[in-house]
Amino acid sequence: MLKRLDKIRFRGPRRDDFLDLAESPNTSDTEGGDETPPRPRASRDPEELRDAAADPPPPAELQAGAGLLSMAAALQDDQRLETDSLNEVKGHLEIALLEKHFLQEELRKLREEASVEALRQELERERGRRLELEARALTARPEDSPPPPPRAPPPPPNGTDGRGQTWFSRLQKWLYERLGSYIEDFRFQPEEVAVETEEPLSAKRLTENMRRLKRGAKPVTNFLRNLSALSSWNSVYTSAIAFIIYMNAAWHGWVVPMFLFLAILRLSLNYLIARGWRIQWSIVPEVSEPPEPPKEELTVSEKFQLVLDVAQKAQNLFGKMADILEKIKNLFMWVQPEITQKLYVGLWVAFISSCLLPYKLLGFIIGVYAGIKFFVIDWVFRSCPKLRRRFDTPYVVWTSLPTDPQLKERAAAPPLSRRVPAAAAAGRGSLSAGPPPGLREDEGGRAYSTKRGAFHEVFNLPEDERPLAVCENGWRCCLINRDRKTPTDYIRNGVLYVTENYLCFESSSSRSGSSKRNKVIRLLDVTDVQKYKVLSVLPGSGMGISIATPSTQKPLVFGAMMHRDEAFDAIFTQYMKIVTMTTASDPET
C-alpha cells in the first residue's frame, strides 16, 4: 500500500508545488467573476518564426489557412494542458483518500487501546471491591453464630496491645489465605437446574440406541444365563462343585465372604481381560452373533422395515417392563387380597423370626434354604411343570398377579350370570363353590377359557391341556388354508393358542359355539415350521407362520399376526421340546 502511495504521490510534480485543496478558494466563487486569469498560449518555435519572416506574405487564401491551422494547434495545446491538470488533481485526490484511510485505521486502533485500558481499570476496581467485601464478611458476625466476646479495654499507652492486635490480624489473614477456599465451598447457593434438550426423532439414532442397549445389557444377560444353567445342572460337574462349595460356606457362616471373594475374582479377571488376556469361562457356550452388514445406502422399503423392527423390539421391551412394574404395584395394593395375604403373613413370620432367633442361626437357616432352593428345588420344578404349578408358591403368585390391561378386561367383561344357560338356573347357588360354566379352574386357582367356553371343551382336548403362559390370551391371526378353493374356507379369522402338545386355532366365525371350523394340530404331526411372508410386495420379512403337516398338501399359514416373532419362538420351542422328549423315550425311532 505504501509503494502504491509513493507511485501516485510522485506521478506529477510535488504536492508542495500546488495550492492546497483545503486552502484554495471555491471554484464557484470565481466562475462568473471578471478577474478570471487568461489562459497561457503556447509559444512557437524560433525556426517557425524565422521561416515566417523570410517567406513573402502569402495571398489571402494562404493567410486564412494559416490562421485555421494556428487555431487548431492552440486548441490541441489547451486540451493537453487541461488533461494534465485533471490527472494531477486525480492523483492528489487518491493521495488524500489513502491518507484518510490510514488516519481512520490509526484512530480505530487508538480507540481500541483506550477501551482495553478502561476495561482493565474497571476490572481492578471490581477486584478491590470484592476483596473489601470479603474482608467485611469475615469480620462481620453472622446471625446464627454465638455472641461475640466482650470487648477488651482500650489499649494502654505503652503499645503492648497494639502489637497483640497486629499479631491477631496477621493470624486471621493467614487463616483466611489457607482456609478461605474451603469456607467458600460451604456457602449455600440455589441449585441450578439444567434443562436437557431433546433430540428429534431419527430412525438411525433409534437403531443405534437399541444396539447400545443390547450391548450394555449383554453382561447382565450372560450372568443370568449362567445362573440358570448352574441351577439347571447343564454341566453336572460344575453344578456339583458349586453346590458343595456353597453348602460348606453356608455351614461355616462364610456365605458373605464367599460372595465378596467371587466379586474380587471377577474384577481381577476383568482387569486381565482389559490388559489383553484372552480368558473365556462360561457354563453356557457363547453364541456368536451375526456380524452387522456393511452400511450402504438403504432403499425406502429397507428403511421402513428397519424402523418396524426397532419399534417392535422397543414395544416388546417396554411391555415386559410395564408388566413387571404393574404386577409389583398390584401385589402391594391388595388388588387380589388372597395373593397379598400370603406376602403379609410371610413378612410377619420373618419379622418375628428376626426378633427371636440370633442372627447367626437366622443367617445359617437362610443360607441353607437358598442353596437347596437354587440347586435342588428349582431343578425339580423345571423338570416337572405340574409340580411347579401346584407347589412352587413364588411362581404361582407371580403368574397369578394381573396387570392393568387384564384388570380392565375383567372390569369390561359381562356379568357371569349372563353366561349361565337357562337349564342351569337351578344350580346358581353352587356358583360360589366353583368356577362358572365356560371356565375351568386349574390346580393353581386360575381359570382358562376361550370366548366360546372352557378351553378343553372347545377343542375336545384332555382336561390337562391348557395354553402356555406366553399365550394365555392367544394371538389374533387369520388361517389361510391353501388347499381350499372357496373364500369362506380359504381364509378364517380367529385366535391361535399353543399347549404342551397341540396347536389350537379358534375361529371367530364358528356358529353357536360349534367347533367344526376350529383347527387342532398335534405338534408331533408337524413336519416343518417356518416364518412366512404372505404378500411379497410389502416390505419386511412378513407377519405369518407356515405349518406343514402330512394331512395337507400345502402348508397352513397363520398370517396377519402382530406378534409373529414371539409366536414363532413359542411354537418352535415347544415343538423341539416335544420332538426331543419323544426321541429320548423311543431311541429306535
TrEMBL record:
A Gene Ontology annotation in the biological process aspect, one of them, is: negative regulation of toll-like receptor 9 signaling pathway
Q: Which keywords does this Swiss-Prot/TrEMBL entry list?
A: Coiled coil, Membrane, Transmembrane, Transmembrane helix
Query: Pro residues bias located where?
Result: 145-158
State the InterPro entries in the record: GRAM, GRAMDC4, GRAMDC4_PH-GRAM, PH-like_dom_sf
Segments for region (Disordered): 15-66, 137-163, 425-446
Residue ranges of the GRAM domain? 453-533
For this entry, the protein name equals GRAM domain containing 4
